[in-house]
Automatic annotation (TrEMBL):
Keyword Cell cycle appears in the UniProt entry: no
Keyword Methyltransferase recorded: yes
Organism: Pseudomonas retamae
A GO molecular-function descriptor: methyltransferase activity
InterPro entries: Methyltransf_11, SAM-dependent_MTases_sf
Listed EC numbers: 2.1.1.-
Protein name (database record): Class I SAM-dependent methyltransferase
Pfam families per UniProt: Methyltransf_11 (PF08241)
Signal peptide residue numbers: none
Coiled-coil segments: none
Sequence ranges assigned to domain Methyltransferase type in this UniProt record: 65-159
Length: 276
């Protein structure tokens, strides 16, 4: 089951864009396009370096597995690099939608699995790249889940893993809809140390641990108050926030201020790790 941020990011992922992030300009700010621009500033979707996230390069020689693929925003980028793509999700409709989304990419092969990932129907030492973003907070047994991810990775495989950051989750505790923190949604909040320990205990070597997403943290906080639908989040609170963030990003020190705010309240924490 996807977290709200993962759904928003997937909705925002467009066709290939210029290699350098360009702030959206429109009479009314599209919050999803702005969120994608913000994500690119944080290191996502770098077409010039072929990095899905900073430090996680994908090439045509890779076999990339995305567990909890959702709507396919991440694997679409990787498919455009020509990699073999393996997708796995518990939601059959998401798997089918992602399969269709990958049909316009030069991915050398696409393999699809509808599964609860316990276990993954994939052979040992299959993938050179493993992606699982905003999934671990949903699963009943994170250690078992990560053990499966490690099992299917080749020696030397890179892992891109993310979970919500506690600064944002704790901010929303008394504001979000009750079901947001109930199964099958977010059933746990992982501190930075807990996240790193889970990954290390699974046998992976952590390369980097970062955080980003102040924009989405505040947007979500206002989203709960606005009580609008995700498909049409039209509300003064959300519109004004998007306009403010776009103006900030266009200011001379916008990127510096974003970095400072991301360090205080982040939507997600991201680990890049390697299988020995």
């Amino acid at each position: 089951m996807l977290s709200l941020l993962k759904k928003l990011t997937a909705m925002a992922t467009p066709a290939p864009a210029p290699t350098q992030p360009v702030a959206p300009v429109a009479s009314k700010v599209d919050p999803y396009a702005l969120g994608l621009y913000d994500a690119k500033l944080s290191g996502w979707f770098n077409q010039e370096t072929n990095e899905l996230f900073k430090g996680f390069e994908v090439s045509a020689q890779d076999t990339l597995l995305d567990v909890g693929c959702g709507d396919g925003g991440n694997v679409h980028f990787c498919g455009m690099r020509g990699a073999k793509i393996i997708i796995a999700d518990i939601d059959a409709a998401k798997v089918d939608a992602t399969r269709q989304r990958l049909s316009d990419t030069p991915a050398r092969e696409v393999e699809c699995h509808v599964t609860d990932c316990n276990p993954l129907p994939i052979a040992d030492a299959t993938a050179t790249r493993v992606v699982s973003t905003e999934v671990i907070e949903h699963v009943d047994d994170p250690a078992q889940f990560l053990a499966e991810l490690v099992r299917v990775g080749k020696s030397g495989a890179l892992y891109l893993l993310s979970v919500p950051h506690p600064s944002s989750e704790n901010l929303q505790k008394d504001i979000a809809a009750a079901e947001y923190f109930q199964k099958p949604h977010h059933i746990r909040i992982l501190s930075e140390e807990q996240f790193k320990t889970l990954v290390s205990d699974a046998g992976l070597e952590i390369i980097s641990h970062s955080q980003y997403g102040f924009y989405w943290s505040m947007w979500m906080l206002l989203f709960w108050e606005a009580k609008v639908d995700l498909s049409n989040p039209d509300h003064p609170l959300l519109n004004h926030w998007a306009e403010t963030w776009q103006a900030l990003m266009a200011s001379p020190r916008g990127a510096q201020i974003k970095q400072a705010l991301d360090a205080v309240v982040a939507k997600s924490q991201v680990i890049i790790a390697r299988k020995p």
